Amino acid sequence: MADSSRRQIGAEITLLPLPGIKVWSDDITGLLTRRKRPIPGPFALIAREKGLALAASAEAGQGYEPRLKPPNARPWQLWYFRQTPHRGEYLIISLAHGLALDARTETHRGRNPLLYEPHGENQQRWRLHPAADGAAFVIESVRTPHVLDAPPDAIDGTKPLLYDRHNGNNQMFLIMMPAGGRPAR
Question: CA 24 to CA 50: how far, in whole Å?
Answer without folding.
Answer: 35
